[in-house]
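Holo prediction. Input below; ligand is adenosine-5'-triphosphate.
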Amino acid sequence: MGLPVAQPGSVPKRVLTIAGSDSGGGAGIQADMRTFALLGVHGCVAVTAVTVQNSLGVSGFEEISPQTVAAQIDTVAGDIGVAAAKTGMLASAPIIEAIVEQCGRSGIGRDASVPLVVDPVCASMHGNQLLADSALDTLRHKLFPLATVVTPNLDEVRLITGIEVTDADSQRDAARALLDLGPRWALVKGGHLRASDRSPDLLYDGEHFIELSHERIDTPHDHGAGDTLAAAIASALAHESPVPEAVGFAKDWVTRCLAAAYPLGAGHGPVNPLWRLRAGPAD
Ligand SMILES: Nc1ncnc2c1ncn2[C@@H]1O[C@H](COP(=O)(O)OP(=O)(O)OP(=O)(O)O)[C@@H](O)[C@H]1O
Ligand SMILES: Cc1ncc(COP(=O)(O)O)c(N)n1
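Structure of the complex:
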């Protein structure tokens, strides 16, 4: 399993993550950079916030100024160049506004040359808030229309659309409501449907519903699963995979990372892209 790896002497694809830092190393930009590296793309970073976080939760965070967030995107896109981008924790409405304006200037977004994956992180898995309530409208009406694909979990779906997903029908309703906000594709992740023995995600483009369902891995160590999925989607898009193939690839990737997850600290350990190092080149 993998994407084409740049041969010695050639330059790997570059992928930009616009997200928060996780001091515990399990989620946020640290998770994104691990997946980028293990998938053979070069990761670039626009940090939005620095969280104080461990396996038990997020005890605080400090935001980066909107100007500095935009400047990071500008300086990377203008010089290094990126083939895909993704967003994670964005913290506030002014930061989202700065990102939307800069992405427009840098050619990043659904109708531009660089695809954008929007993972609308609202809270950590421990329930700690990572996006201000006052930023929800900006997320919905300014960032979503720029997205090639949005990847909310079920809590984020409820906050963004008001729809409580409990089964396949409500998951379809949620996908339609998300599409109405303007992204090219919506992926409604089913990782939080814990009663199921599957982990069913639903991808929708306004015409076709594509179900991506894998067996549920029985582990409490799923910190960073959402970031890892979105980072893998962006990596595949950078290689010009069509969205359904990119999401299918990423779903396989995150499932294997969940199966290899390890405990850290007294709480939830991280999903583990490092399984790839053990697999060898022919896998
Ligand atoms: N226990 C599990 N077994 C298999 N797949 C899972 C499991 N939990 C989550 N997934 C998958 O991992 C991806 C991330 O899903 P999830 O719904 O947990 O997102 P998330 O809440 O944003 O992730 P996280 O908060 O853990 O970073 C989805 O593809 C989902 O189906
Ligand atoms: C900086 C940052 N970004 C994203 C998450 C979400 O990940 P999770 O839902 O696994 O806590 C997080 N906890 N911290």
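The pocket of MP5 (ligand 2) is lined by residues 19-22, 27-28, 51, 53, 88-89, 121, 124-125, 223-224, 226-227 (CB under 6 Å). That is the main takeaway for now.
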